Amino acid sequence: MGSSGFNWKLADHPKLPKGKTVGLIVLDGWGEANPDQYNCIHVAETPVMDSFKKGAPERWRLVRAHGTAVGLPTEDDMGNSEVGHNALGAGRIFAQGAKLVDSALETGKLYEGEGFKYIKESFPTNTLHLIGLLSDGGVHSRLDQLLLLVKGASERGAKRIRVHILTDGRDVLDGSSVGFAETLENYLAELREKGVDAQIASGGGRMYVTMDRYENDWGVVKRGWDAQVLGEAPHKFRNAVEAIKTLRQEPNTSDQYLPPFVIVDENGKPVGPIVDGDAVVTFNFRADRMVMIAKALEYADFDKFDRVRFPKIRYAGMLQYDGELKLPSKYLVEPPEIDRTSGEYLTYNGVRTFACSETVKFGHVTFFWNGNRSGYFNPQMEEYVEIPSDSGITFNVQPKMKAVEIAEKARDAILSKKFEQVRVNLPNSDMVGHTGDIEATVVACKAADEAVKIIIDAIEQVGGIYVVTADHGNAEDMVKRNKKGQPLLDKNGNIQILTSHTLQPVPIAIGGPGLAPGVQFRKDVPNGGLANVAATVMNLHGFEAPADYETTLIEVVDN
Asked: How far is CA 222 from CA 215, 260, 300, 362, in A?
């Protein structure tokens, strides 16, 4: 338990008692924005969340959940569930995904690492393949990083480069893939003039090709495998820009759902299948949608679909995507070292913990919360419960998802009095928000609010404390806007739906019969963010946070 010789003991809080049951609820994708018809949280009936906001002003506030507050490079970077839960659990801000890659590229450290040296062994005789999301969205990948990596590899001996693109339209505007493909094509053309054989080899939309997650649908990964590795796809084109423009004209097709295509030469032969001896890099920095393709590329023993052939390649991820599975075993950029998380401290100080969500966010409330670490700190002190998510449907079809089941598990854990911390993630507003279905997202927000009530009622019964917050925005703004904040219209005069996360702050509310009188949010932490929540929760468990944690949001004033 813990590192040897390290003192895990937390100081007692001078004014707050130990032993209270703390119900910790994370609403996924629940930000705070101006009330209008595109704010699904505002439109939905959410009496419980409304009551927190309208209640005691000293027990409700907003915190930052994007940009530098969660370790991302700029204030234009939307938060996401991974960095959000890292910050909530770690109590400190760590440089994340994009930032780590930026710094490794800038300093050249990337090219000195074990991962790059490994793939470089293929350069003299074979092809370097790059697979990932073609986007400047900054959530899973960034186009400028891809271009720098292509440049760096070509300067270090890569003579033949093939890029396998996945079009976005989820974190960025639908239709923007054409421009990204043109930018990439132009750069590869410059390299060809310098004698490097560099071209795009295949493509497809991110939600239909390669980028599935949580083993939801292996068919998505297989479509990618067939195009990228085997060079087989239903659509063949001479160049990628033409491919995207043509395929986008088909009914029910968008960037997210573009069917797979391969690029062929004048004889109709695919220009870039992956063969023995080649090097492959998956260049996304965000892990969740790379784990499945990583398994297909890395595991000799693999039964999720018929790979037809399994080339002997040198494969590396941009980062390691799963620390527990050590997947992939080779990667270009080292992960943030997140140590001494609040979960580990609290477990060590006798706080018994229950954590629960459904499949799509279970990893967030456990693995990411605990600093990108799988499993228990102490199985005697912790219980984690995963409720299977609906599979084979999009989440707007069943927008209530498993909110009630999660809430009932939490309620039972609270009423059992076996745990001092009961922690859940309610995914509805995020997962349904991503579908762009406004009506379904309204239903999702109501369902999440009803789930909060079930948990709060249990906290009331045991004389406990609740903390309700979120990891980033999504459902509070479902429309794209111009600089003045007015909704953007497409050429047919319809509003342009926003399916992505947002830059909005998120609420945090505290309360419950166990909350000591005089506890209130401080006025002197105006820029508080998700990382401040950990110290706050430690206080509510009766402990002072470690000195290097981001400061607590609460104080105790003598009445």
From this structure: 12, 10, 16, 25
Is there a binding annotation on residue 28?
A: yes
Establish if 530 belongs to a structural domain. Answer: yes
Q: Give domain status of residue 12, yes or no.
A: no
Q: Where are the alpha helices (DSSP H) in 156-209?
A: 177-193
Angstrom distance (rounded) from CA 372 to CA 426: 20
pLDDT score recorded for residue 425: 98
Question: What are the respective helix, strand and coil percentages of the chain, to the nearest 5?
Answer: 35, 20, 50
- pLDDT value of position 324: 54
81 counts as catalytic: yes
* Tokens read off for 79: 């938060």
CA 107 to chain centre: 26
Please name the helix (run of DSSP H) or strand (run of DSSP E) that holds residue 84, with its range, or none: helix 81-90
* pLDDT of the residue at 115: 98
The pLDDT of residue 174? 94
Q: Judge whether 312 and 300 are in contact, CB under 8 Å.
A: no
How would you write 420-478 as a 3-class SS string? Answer: CEEEEEECHHHHHHCCCCHHHHHHHHHHHHHHHHHHHHHHHHCCCEEEEEECCCCCCCC
Query: Model pTM?
Result: 0.77
Are 286 and 413 found together in one domain? no
81 is in an annotated binding site: yes
We report the CATH number of the domain holding residue 545 as: 3.40.720.10
List 423's β-bridge partners, or say none: 24, 355
* 287 labeled binding residue: yes
CA distance 10 to 2: 14
Are 383 and 366 part of one and the same domain? yes
Per-10-residue mean pLDDT of the chain, 559 residues long, equals 74 98 98 97 98 94 97 85 94 90 94 97 98 94 98 98 97 95 98 98 98 87 98 98 97 95 98 98 92 97 97 96 80 87 98 97 94 94 97 92 98 98 98 94 98 98 98 96 91 89 96 97 97 98 98 93
Range of the domain at 112: 98-317
Rounded-to-integer distance, Cα 398 and Cα 71, Å: 33
Number of domains in the chain: 2
Say if residue 289 carries a ligand binding annotation.
Answer: yes
Structure tokens at 551: 């400061």
Residue 162 marked as a ligand binder: no
Q: Report the C-alpha gap between 328 and 298 in whole angstroms.
A: 7
Catalytic residue among 3, 4, 51, 81: 81
* Domain identity same for 55 and 131: no
Instruction: List the one residue out of 475, 355, 468, 455 whose CA is nearest residue 403.
Output: 455
What count of Cα atoms within 13 Å lies in the side-chain half-sphere of residue 252?
2
50 is in an annotated binding site: no
Tokens of 114: 């074990």
Report yes or no on 415 lying in a domain: yes
The reply, when asked if residue 288 is annotated as ligand binding, is: yes
Cα separations in angstroms, 235 against 81, 163, 245, 258, 308:
35, 17, 13, 11, 19
Is 340 assigned to a binding site?
Answer: no
Can you give the pLDDT at residue 56? 86
